[in-house]
Structure to design on (238 residues):
């Protein structure tokens, strides 16, 4: 019997929808891919409607330790639901967790082809060479940047971009703009999510510093977009 699945993580929603159409019965309001996804919406990643999830009678709820709040996950477990929580802080963890979700959780008999293609694409990314120091804002008002142990930071490092707050105690610290400007960075990397940085909103805050506008989906999502992410990110970081 095919499991009924609710996903609380946009990238995992896409992974399940593409790999096993028909399994998903619920997803968050932020689950934008695939574009034609037609399932019950159960609120946000940080504030899901627990009762709405329970009413869907899922066999499995997929979550992530960063995207979702433990009190919500505890409430789902207390209601008798099985919750699979992923931990993804670098690329190898992403591949391992995607296989766990899709094969162990959703019952696929084998890894989907896109996951093999993604691993092959990232295996072709050459390591070494010139390295650049970067600041990577993810929000402004207040300014927040990538800190320690982030999936996005690991991807950037594979292209020779070392973000300067990788050793910070927090994963997404707030840092004053003056400090960012004085950090000695060679580059500022500006993704278009969660904050939508654009050519007109972001680069002007870092006068004299080269800016790379990158796709947030390809920098921060762990799912089918990983297969094309090396090409997309390489072009943006040139």
């Amino acid at each position: 019997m095919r499991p009924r699945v609710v996903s609380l993580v946009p990238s995992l929603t896409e992974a399940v929808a593409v790999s096993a159409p028909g399994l998903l019965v619920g997803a968050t309001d932020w689950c934008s891919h695939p574009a034609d996804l037609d399932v019950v919406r159960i609120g946000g990643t940080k504030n899901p409607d627990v009762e709405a999830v329970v009413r869907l009678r899922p066999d499995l709820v997929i979550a992530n330790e960063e995207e979702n709040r433990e009190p919500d996950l505890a409430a789902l477990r207390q209601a008798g639901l099985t919750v699979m929580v992923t931990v993804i802080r670098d690329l190898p963890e992403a591949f391992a967790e995607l296989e766990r979700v899709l094969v162990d959780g959703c019952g696929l008999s084998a890894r989907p082809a896109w996951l093999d293609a993604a691993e092959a694409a990232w295996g072709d990314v050459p390591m070494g060479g010139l390295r650049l120091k970067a600041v990577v804002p993810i929000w402004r008002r207040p300014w927040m940047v990538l800190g320690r142990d982030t999936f996005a930071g690991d991807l950037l490092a594979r292209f020779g971009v070392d973000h300067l707050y990788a050793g910070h105690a927090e994963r997404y610290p707030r840092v004053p703009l003056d400090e960012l400007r004085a950090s000695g960075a060679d580059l500022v990397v500006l993704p278009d999510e969660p904050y939508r940085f654009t050519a007109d909103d972001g680069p002007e805050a870092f006068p004299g510093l080269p800016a790379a506008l990158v796709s947030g989906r390809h920098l921060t999502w762990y799912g089918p977009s990983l297969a094309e992410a090396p090409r997309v990110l390489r072009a943006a970081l040139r």
Summary: The radius of gyration is 19 Å. Residues 148 and 169 are 7 Å apart (CA to CA).
